[in-house]
Amino acid sequence: MVGDSFINWSLLSLSAPGWGGLLLQGFLSSIEIAVGGYALGLLLGIGGASGKLYGGPLVRDLLECYTTVVRAVPELVLILLLYYAGTDLLNQVLGAFGIGTVDISGLMAGIFVIGVVQGAYSTEVLRGAIKAVPAGQIEAARAYGMSPFMVLRRITLPAMLPYAIPGLANLWLIATKDTALLAVVGFSELTLVTRQAAGATKAYLLFFCAAGALYLALTLVSNVFIGMLERHARRGFAEQR
Amino acid sequence: MLNKQKGNGMKKTLKLLALATALAITGAATAAAEQVKVGIAAEPYPPFTSPDASGNWQGWEIEFMKAMCAEAKLDCVVTPVAWDGIIPALTSKKIDMIIGSLSITAERQKTIDFSDKYYNTPTGIIGAKGDDITPTPEGLAGKTIGVQVSTVHQAYAMKHFAPAGVEVKEYQTQDEANQDLAAGRVDAVQADAIALDAFLESDQGKQCCDYKGEVAEDVDVIGPGVGVGLRKGETELKEKINAAIKAIRENGTYEAFSKKYFDFDIYGG
Amino acid sequence: MTDETTHALAYTPEDLPKKESFLKPHRILLILLFAALVVAIAVFMRWDWLPRYLPRLGSGILVSLAMLFSTAFLGFLLAVPLGLFQVTGPSFLKVPARIFCTVIRGTPLLLQLWLLYYGLGSLFPQFPAIRQSFLWPYLREAWPYGVAALTVSFAAYEGEVMRGAFAGVPAGELEAARAYGMGRWTMFRRIWLPRAIHRALPTLNGETVLQLKSTPLVATITVVDVYAVISKVRQETYLTYEPLLLLAAIYMCLTGTLVVAFRYFENRIPTRGA
C-alpha cells in the first residue's frame, strides 16, 4: 500500500488513464489567469499610480482606500468577496446603464479577481518606481514643451522601469501562486484539478508533488526571463551593490 | 499651471484605462447562448458525480442530468463550483440549477426552491475496521465524527450526536472526510449510504473501514430526498424539470441508466 | 523579496495616516460618506445572526492570532540559520538552504498545506510505530500541520530577507569586532546578528502582516480559525456578503492593530545610523 500509493507513475501519464494531461490543462488555465490577472493588474496599477501621484485629493484618497484594503485583507477573503460580489456588482452596474447583464465566464471572473488584487500591489510598486525617477528629468522634458502624455510615454515610463522591474517581477510570481487560491471557489486551475485527481485516485502525495513541480518550474523559468529583463532595463545604469 | 495640465491629462488617461479595463472584462464574455448552467460540486463524489482522467464528469447524477435535460429540451452545461458556495452561486446566477445530490430540506427551502425528488437513499455511518461503533449517539460518545459541511449529515450530526459528546469535524468535500477516516484522524464518517459504499469498495476503503449501519431517521433534518435546486420564482423551469423527471421515470430511461450503477431502486419509496 | 515589494503587498507602519490630515474638507466628506455606507450596511443588510456567533468569532480570532504569532516566531528562529547559511555556510549547508528557500517560495502555500495534511499526514497511520507513539494525538489534529506549513513558509521568505540583512552588515564593523579580539561566536552574537536583525526589522513588519494574510488558508484543513467560523455562518445562514464583509472588517482591524503596535515598537528602537 505504501509503495503503490506514491510510486505509481503511470497515474501521471498524459493520456486518458493517467491524469497528466488534465494536470497540464489545469496548469495552462492557471497560467492564463495569471497572465490575464497580471495584465489587468498592471493596467490598474498604471492608472492607480498616476492617480496617486498626480490626481486630485479625492482621487488620491479613494485610491488610498483601495490599496489599503487590498494590502490589509487576506487574498483568500478578497477572492471570495470579489468572486461573489464583484461579478454581481458589475452586472448590476451594467444593468443600470441599460447594457444588460453579461455572462461572466469562470476564466473572466478569475482574471478579474486576481487583477483587482494585483492592481493594488502594482499601484504601490509603480508609485514607488515613478517617485524614484529624478525630478529633473521630468522637468527637463516639460521644459522641452512635451505634453503630459508624452512625458509619461517618453520619460517617466522608460526611466522608472529599472526601479519597477524587481517589484513587478515579484508580483508576477505572486500572481502565479495566487491562482491556486481560486481552487477554494471551485475554479478548475492546477491546484483544484490536482486535488480532484488526488481524491479520485487516493495518490495524494504523488499528485501534490507533481503540481508543486509544475509551479516551481514556472517560477524558475520566469526567473530566467526576469533576469534577462532586468539586465536589459539596467543597461546604462551604474552597477549597483 | 503645468501641474494642472498634467493632472487633466492624467485624468483622461485614467478614464481611458478604466474604460479599457471594463471592456476587457466584459468584452469576451457577452456571447451568451440560451444555455442552462448546471452546478455540480467540483469534487469527486462517486458514484454520483466524479471527474475522470480526461476531465469529463461522469456518474449516475450526470446521466440523470443528461436524460432529464434531453427530455425537457434544455441545453445543459456542467459547471463545477465549490460545494460550500453552491447555493450562493445559484442565487447570484453563476449557475441556473443544482444537480449535486442536494437534499430537499425546509432549511434550504427558505433560500432556494426544489424540483420533485429524483432519488432518496439512507444515511449511514462508516468507521475503522474492528472499531465497535454503533450509529447512535451513545455508540459514538467520546468519538470524533467527520461530515461534509453544509450537508444534511452535518445538520444531523450537530443535532443528534454533538449534544451526546461526539466531536463533529467538518470537511469541505466528502472525499476529504473519507481520507481523514483512512488516516485515522476521525473515528467515523456520516454520509449518504451509497456514497459511502463507493468509498468502501475502493482499495483504500476496503483496507481501512467498514459499514457501521444506518442512523435513526429524522425527516426534519434529512428531508424526503434529493431534488434539483432552483432559484425561487422560476416556476416555468421548475415545471419543465418536474415533468421531465416524471417522464423519464415512466418511459424507462431512469431505470435503464440506474441499472448500470445500482442493483436496487435508487428512487426510493 | 525586496523591502519595497513587501511594502506593496502588506499594509505597513509607514502607511498609517497622520492625525492632522483628517481635517481637510474632502476628507470630512469622505468620512461622512463612509459613515453613511456603514449605517446603510448595518440597517439594510441582515445581521441578526451576529449575536449567536460572537463567542465563536472571538475564539476564531484567537486561533488566527495564535497561528500568526507562533508561526512568525518559529519561522523567524528558522530564518536566522537559513539566512546565515546562505551567506557564509559551507556548501553542504548553503545549497540545501538555497534549495529550501527556492522551493518553498516557488510553490503556493495552499498546495504545501494540502501536501502536508492530506499527503504526508495520510502516510503516518500506515506505520504502527507512529500510531502508537506519544506524538499520535497531535498528528491526529489539524493544527500541527497548519503550524508546520505556515512556519516553513515564513522561514523561507524571511530567510531570504535575513540573507540580505547578513550580507548587508558593513564588513568594517565585523573587522572592527575581530580587531577587538572577539571570537567568531561572540562576534556573531554581539555584532552580526543584532545588526542584521536591525536591518531586517522594517521588512519583518511587512512579512508579519503578510503572514496574517496567509493564516486563513489553514481553514481548508479543518482548523477552526476566524475564517472557518465565517464560512460556517455563510453555510448556515446562506448569506454571502454580510459575513464576508464582516470578515474583511475583522482582518482590517487585526492588520491595523498589528501595524500600530509595530509603529510603537519601531519608535522605541533607536535607529541612528541604520
TrEMBL record, chain A:
Localisation: Cell inner membrane; Cell membrane
GO cellular component, one term: ATP-binding cassette (ABC) transporter complex
Keyword Transmembrane helix found: yes
Molecular-function GO term, any one: transmembrane transporter activity
Domain of life according to the entry: Bacteria
Membrane topology (UniProt): Multi-pass membrane protein
Domain ABC transmembrane type-1, chain residue ranges per copy: 27-226
Keywords associated with the record: Cell inner membrane, Cell membrane, Membrane, Transmembrane, Transmembrane helix, Transport
Transmembrane stretches, start-end: 6-24, 31-49, 69-86, 93-117, 155-173, 204-226
Family membership: Belongs to the binding-protein-dependent transport system permease family. HisMQ subfamily.
Protein name (database record): ABC transporter permease
Species of the source: Sinorhizobium medicae
TrEMBL record, chain B:
Subcellular location as annotated: Periplasm
Originating species: Sinorhizobium medicae
Record carries keyword NADP: no
Coiled coil: none
UniProt-listed InterPro entries: Solute-binding_3/MltF_N
Main subcellular location of this protein, as a coarse class: periplasm
Name used for this protein in its record: Histidine/lysine/arginine/ornithine transporter subunit periplasmic-binding component of ABC superfamily
Name of a matching Pfam family: SBP_bac_3
Keywords: Signal
Secretion signal, residue range per the UniProt entry: 1-31
GO cellular component, one term: periplasmic space
Record domain Solute-binding protein family 3/N-terminal: where: 35-265
Annotated gene: hisJ
Domain of life: Bacteria
From TrEMBL, chain C:
Gene Ontology CC terms, in alphabetical order: ATP-binding cassette (ABC) transporter complex
Location, primary (coarse class): membrane
MF annotations from Gene Ontology: transmembrane transporter activity
Annotated signal peptide: none
Keyword list, A-Z: Cell inner membrane, Cell membrane, Membrane, Transmembrane, Transmembrane helix, Transport
Topological type in the membrane: Multi-pass membrane protein
Every ABC transmembrane type-1 domain range: 61-262
Localization per Swiss-Prot or TrEMBL: Cell inner membrane; Cell membrane
Biological process annotations from GO: amino acid transport
CDD domains (alphabetical): TM_PBP2
Family matches, as InterPro entries: AA_ABC_transptr_permease_3TM (IPR010065), ArtM/GltK/GlnP/TcyL/YhdX-like (IPR043429), MetI-like (IPR000515), MetI-like_sf (IPR035906)
Positions of transmembrane segments: 28-47, 59-85, 244-265
Family of this protein: Belongs to the binding-protein-dependent transport system permease family. HisMQ subfamily.
Matches recorded under NCBIfam families: HEQRo_perm_3TM
The protein's name: ABC transporter permease
